[in-house]
Amino acid sequence: MTTSPPGREEPVASPPFALRPEVEADAPFRLALFGVSRGAAWEQVPLPADMLARIMEQQFHAQTQGYRVTFPNARLEIVTVDGAPVGRLATDRDARSVHLVDIALVPERRGQGIGEAILRTLMDEATAAGTPLTLQVARDNLGAQRLYHRLGFVLAEANDTHLSLRWSATAAATA
Question: What is the domain range of residue 35?
Fold first, then answer.
């Protein structure tokens, strides 16, 4: 067994992941993922379960349509581990940036390095393209914010509900 020198952590191998294009048959998985991504506060809403389910489905369809309108050229993918779907990735690319539109993992796969591995892959892509990697994160998603800041993302803009973050190889190299 080897040990790392003090102050240096050994790299943790992340589970291998693969990306495949979303297909219509993924809609039930995506809806379930959307639901578990809403957080515990959603479950506290004082409405009957069937009504909450209908509202969740309406919000899911609104998000799907909103992404199609706002990001018509987005790459919509399912994240898999060992062939099983564990998440969703939506990205949009243009000459100005690689933009992370949405990333979500099932709760039992969070904290295992998959999200970080995906982000590092996108960071490599942005570096190769000579563009920044940009994203928005909800102000109340503190876990994701910690990850993004640890990877070197910086605040670009903020509004009442979201933070716009930016990462660039140039800025990261000078930090």
Answer: 18-174
Per-position DSSP letters for the chain, written without gaps between them: ---PPTT-PPPPPPPP-EEEE--GGGHHHHHHHHHHTT-HHHHTS-S-HHHHHHHHHHHHHHHHHHHHHH-TT-EEEEEEETTEEEEEEEEEE-SS-EEEEEEEE-GGGTTSSHHHHHHHHHHHHHHHHT--EEEEEETT-HHHHHHHHHTT-EEEEE-SSEEEEEE-HHHHHH-
**How many folded domains does the chain comprise?**
1
pLDDT at 15 over 70: no
Per-residue model confidence as pLDDT tens digits over 70-87? 999 999 999 999 999 999
Q: What CATH number does residue 165 fall under?
A: 3.40.630.30
